[in-house]
Amino acid sequence: MFISPAILLFVVFVAGPLVAAFALSLFHWDLLSTPEFAGLDYFRQLVTDGATVRAVINTFVFALASVVTHIGIGMLLALGVHRTMTRGTKYFVRTAYFFPFLVSWAAVALIWKYVLDPAFGLANYYLSATTNWLASPTLALPTLIVVDWWHTIGYTFIILLAGLQTVPAQLHEAARVDGANAWWRFWSVTLPVMSPTIFFATVITFIGAFQIFDPMVIMTQGGPDGATRSIVQYTYEKGFQSFEVGYAAALSLVLFVVIMVVTGLQFRLSRRWVHQ
Amino acid sequence: MRGKLLDLVLVLGGVVMITPLVWLVVNALSEPIDAFQLPPRWIPRPPTLQNFQQVPDLIPFAQMAWNSLQIAVITTAGALLTSALAAYAFNRLRFPGRDQIFSVLLAALVVPVQLTVVPIFIMMRWLHLVDTTVAIWLPALVNVFGIFFLRQYISSIPRELDEAAIMDGAGHFWILFRVILPLARPGLTALGIFVFEASWNNFFWPYIFLSSPEKMTLPVGLVSLQGAVGGGPAVVLFAAITLVVLPILVLFLIFQRSFIASIASTGLRA
Questions:
Q1: Mean pLDDT, to the nearest integer, of A2-28?
Q2: Angle at A99 between CA B21 and CA A94, to 5 degrees
Q3: Contacts of residue A5 in chain B, CB cutoff 8 Å?
Q4: Which family would the database say this protein is a member of (chain B) (predicted)?
Q5: What is the pLDDT of residues B9-39, one digit of tens each?
Q6: H or E stretch covering A224
Q7: What gap in Å lies between CA B250 and CA B244, rounded to an integer?
């Protein structure tokens, strides 16, 4: 009786739709006419449709870059803030890096569209550039990676900082007595103790990055020429703009498989480096 | 010396981080002719609220704010309730298939909402619920992560407390609401903050389901305002964004401790 509300909702809004997505991917359907059995047509199309391949590549590039920059710089920030600092400085730094995470993606994307405006934006002014960031086929995706970093680094930073605070001071002290220098103490004490936190942050960042949608839709519409289109955005276009429901379902299954495989792989690899 | 230098780098980085937000507020407070000047003017002279007054002429801002609030409150309260009930059952009760059902739920943590959105859209269309706020909060009432998180939390509460209550003749509802949940308050707060924030900021789901301006939530409304403004007064858009962003930032400054604790413990991301 206690679980029935949750289970009922789960069946209707998670398990049911999951099964339905598999079924939908086997049919041609535009939401209006009678669905027509398509077999594996859409899965064949996934491989031959250049736009899908492009969207998958874009999403992987985005996710990899996102994880490396979030974990790498986030770790440096956490180490920087964890040292002895005056209270005021610590408060300012922590708050300043965390603020953007509180702003909804819709607002972030709109603000940055103006910051990046080639004529009157702050970016070009301070960089003394005349670049049209979002219209460049080579720069648009890296630009969105930077905007995403700005938006979510506060989250990664707080998680890593919390992890860093769990490292017992006695361990550092012991290593110091044994003559270990700062670098060696980081490598042999801090990193192993923090490994579960780093692992967790990596998994979450990957999953979040694979689902990226908002900045592409609001800032670039996937352009220029598909250079920033993500898997989810392509799913949206197919399902809700051109009403190829079956194709959209097939695309969303690709996302599901990608997330499952990458997450599974990380858990497998984690046995080699994560200390429990 | 090296420490001071590092502090300086971190502080400068912090200034760069908040620059776009300061620029947002400054432009929102500027007269249209003074806004978006380069080099930027960091103090609007004189500050004006006229851009804010124009927001309701372009979008039903108050209605959108109400929709956002309504959806976020129902989602948070509902998800906390269903999660708490299920978490209690999975941790404290014995029933056939308990562990199997729980592992199925756990496996569902990797199912992205983007996979379920297409079938749910079809279901909602069939129920004539597309373009209603119900379509937004109803599917959000089940939160697999919430069940998992609260189960962990409840398992750390000693069972002797329930046993004492059972001796006194208490039923499971009484134990859950009078013994367990009061002790699980930090966990409930952390989860609540996160569910609320995720709902308040959500763009993907409302963008797909809501199309009429008076049904929209704030994030979708802001994006629609961009369309309505076109090349026109960007200052009005900036004023609207400020109205959305500023309350959250102020709330954060007040409840910083609970916010940070919420992130560090749930580790969940919008």
A1: 87
A2: 125
A3: 81-82, 85-86, 141
A4: Belongs to the binding-protein-dependent transport system permease family.
A5: 999 999 999 999 999 999 989 888 787 888 8
A6: none
A7: 11
Can you give A17-40 as a three-state secondary structure string? HHHHHHHHCCEECCCCCCCEECCC
- Domain region containing A166: 49-273
Residues in chain B within 8 Å Cβ distance of A115: 20, 23
User: Does residue A6 sit within a domain?
Assistant: no
Quick check: bond before A35 cis, omega within 30?
no
Q: Is A208 on the interface with B (CB under 8 A)?
A: yes
pLDDT tens digit sequence for A88-132: 888 899 899 999 998 999 999 999 999 998 888 898 889 988 888
CATH of the domain at A205: 1.10.3720.10
* Fold category of B56-266 in CATH: MetI-like fold (1.10.3720)
Counting the structural domains of chain A, the total is 1
Nearest to A13 among B3, B93, B120 (CB): B120
- Cβ–Cβ below 8 Å for B15 and A96: yes
Rounded to whole angstroms, how far apart are CA atoms B173 and B88?
A: 10
Predicted confidence (pLDDT) per residue in A48-78, tens digit: 888 899 999 999 999 999 999 999 999 999 9
What percent of chain B shows pLDDT beyond 70? 95
Residues 158-177 of chain A whose Cβ lies under 8 A from any Cβ of chain B: 158-159, 162
Comma-separated ranges of CATH 1.10.3720.10 domains in chain B = 56-266
Amino acid at A86: T
Disruptive mutation site among A22, A102, A153, A166 for chain B (greatest number of B CBs within 10 Å): A102
Question: Each residue of B42-70: pLDDT tens digit?
Answer: 887 788 888 898 888 888 999 999 999 99
